Every structure is written in structure tokens, then in C-alpha cells.
Amino acid sequence: MRGGRGGAGARPFEHETPFGTADLDLSVSMTISLEESVYGGEKRVRLPTGKELNVRIPKEVTTGQQIRLKGQG
Predict the structure, then answer these.
(1) Are the C-beta atoms of residues 12 and 26 closer than 8 Å to each other?
(2) For residue 41, what are the β-bridge partners?
(3) d(C-alpha 65, C-alpha 1), whole Å
(4) Cβ-contact 35, 57 below 8 angstroms
(5) What gap in Å lies between CA 19 and CA 14, rounded to an integer?
């Protein structure tokens, strides 16, 4: 999957609305190598909020696949 993308979900942040507080999901796109897509691995990503997370890439991830992070939204 050289040049492919695997999305990484991110922890929702709170946004004030007229009806109270709402959780918003964030997403980040990343490019991984063929080896990472076949064998898995780990990448560090920076969220739009500035927070950085280490993301575990599962084995046999495919182009365009989304990865939700447990406890991160």
C-alpha cells in the first residue's frame, strides 16, 4: 500500500452549542509504507488540536481503512 492512506480517529473534543456540550470526532490521514501495511507498526500523528499520539497500525491494513482508537473517541 505504498502511498496509501489509513485514517486514524482521534479523541473527541467538546464544543459548546446552544443545547449544551457536544463531542466532535477528529480524523487524521496518514501515509504508510508497504511494509507497515503488511506487518503493522506504529506511527506518531499530530491532531488538529496540537496533541500528538502514537497510533498502532494493525497488520494487513488496506487503503482508505479507518482505525478508531480505543478511548480516543
Answers:
(1) yes
(2) 57
(3) 11
(4) no
(5) 13
